[in-house]
Amino acid sequence: MPKELIVANFEEVGRQIDRELKKLRRFLEKEVKPATGRKAAAALRKASERLAHAARELEARVARMK
């Protein structure tokens, strides 16, 4: 797969994540009660930790490939 296509795919993934986060933020602001919001915030923090871990693993794998 050409490098340009891979970069474009990652950029699209980033844009999609941004769109989904905006939708989630609107939903949380308008529809969610405070207690549920706290639980959602905890779940988002956990997801963020997992994404950060995945990013570190990916960076390490790429570094080994050089």
Please tell me about this protein's structure.
This protein has 66 residues and is mostly helical. It has one domain. It contains two helices and no strands. It is elongated.
Q: What's the short story on this structure?
A:
This protein is mainly alpha-helical and 66 residues long.
**Distance linking N and C termini:** 17 Å
**Percent of residues in beta strands:** under 5%
* Total domain units: 1
Could you report the average pLDDT, rounded to the nearest whole number? 85
In N-to-C order, the SSE pattern is HH
Please estimate the helix content: over 70%
Report the oligomer.
single chain
Number of discrete helical segments: 2
The low-confidence runs, each spanning 5 or more residues with pLDDT under 50, are none
SSE class:
mainly alpha
SSE map:
Blueprint: H1 3-31, H2 34-65
What attributes does this structure have?
66 residues; mainly alpha; 2 helices
